[in-house]
Amino acid sequence: MSRRFIDLSHTITEGLVTYPGLPAPAFTSHLSREESRSRYAPGTEFQMDLITMIGNTGTYLDSPFHRYADGGDLSTLELETLAELPAVVFQFPGVAGTTLDGPQPEDQSEFAFDGRAITADAFGTEDLRGTAVLLSTGWDALFGTPAYASGSPFLSEDGARLLVEREVLLVGIDSLNIDDTESGGERPAHSLLLDAGIHVVEHLTNLAALPFRGARFTAVPPKVAGFGTFPVRAFATIDGP
C-alpha cells in the first residue's frame, strides 16, 4: 500500500514574523565551509550555523508548561500523543476563501462559525477521543503578511471545553492563535486544553488538502527540558493508492 505525505508546516526563514511583537529568527554562521577547510582533510568541508529564535516561531506546538508552571514541558511529552494521531479535519468554508474537501459531520450546526469564533456546534456529535482535531480556516494564506495579525479565526471557550470533554489528544489551527488575541488578554482555549494535557499546534498550513477523516497527523518538537513551546515539522500521512 502506498503512503502520501502532506506537509502542514510553514518554512522558517531569517527575519520571519510569526506573531506581531515577538522577535524574528536570526541566522549566523558558527563555522563556514571556507573556515572548515583548514580543520579537515582536503576536499572535506562543513557548514555549522546558529539560529536565535523564540519558541513561538513558524508552525509550533504548545505543551502544558507554556501555560502552567507545573505543567509538562517539551521533554515530558509522550510520542503516542504527538505522532501518527488519527486526524479529524473540520473545514470552515467562506473563511479566508476555504472550500470544503470531503464530507463533514451531518449534524454540524450552520452556526458553528460565529463571526470569528469556532464554537462547540462545529463538532456535532463526532467521536473525537484520541484524535488530533484540526481546524482549517484558510487563514494560512495570509501568513507572513500584515493582514495575518488581526481578525483571525479562533476556537471559542465552549468549543475548547467540548474538545476536553471528548478527550482529544491535540488541537491544531491554521491561524494566528487558538484563542482570540483581541479579547483583552483572556486565553480560555489555551487554559482549558493545556490544563487537560491536550497539545496545541498553531500556524498550520495546507489543511484544506486533508480529508475529514482518514489522515494521520504528526507534530513532534525537540525533547527540551524547561521549555514550553517549539517549532515542529507538522505533516499528515494518508494510506491508499
Defining key terms:
single chain; 241 residues; mainly beta; Glucose Oxidase, domain 1; nine-stranded mixed beta sheet; three-stranded mixed beta sheet
Percent of residues in beta strands? 15-25%
What is the count of distinct domains? 1
Number of strands: 14
**Overall 3D form:** globular
* Biggest sheet details: 9 strands, mixed
Low-confidence stretches: 96-103
CATH H level: which superfamily? Putative cyclase
Work out the oligomeric state of the chains in this entry.
Answer: single chain
What class, by secondary structure content?
A: mainly beta
Query: If helices are DSSP runs of H or I spanning 4 or more residues, what is the number of helices?
Result: 3
Order of helices and strands: EEHEEEEEEEHEHEEEE
Mean pLDDT: 92
**Percent range for helical residues?**
under 10%
Rg, Å, rounded: 19 Å
Biggest β-sheet: strands ordered side by side in the sheet:
1-14-12-5-8-10-11-4-13
Summarize the structure.
Helix content is 9%, strand content 24%. With 241 residues, the chain is mainly β. The strands form three sheets. The protein has a nine-stranded mixed β-sheet, covered by helices on one side.
Account of the 3D structure:
The structure is a single chain. With 241 residues, the chain is mainly beta. The protein has a single domain (3-10, 54-239), classed as Putative cyclase (Glucose Oxidase, domain 1, 3-Layer(bba) Sandwich). It has 3 helices and 14 strands. The strands form 3 sheets. It has a 9-stranded mixed sheet with strand order 1-14-12-5-8-10-11-4-13, with helices on one face. Strands 6-7-9 form a 3-stranded mixed sheet. Strand 10 (170-173), helix 3 and strand 11 (199-202) form a beta-alpha-beta unit. Helix 2 (157-165) runs parallel beside helix 3 (188-195). The termini are close together.
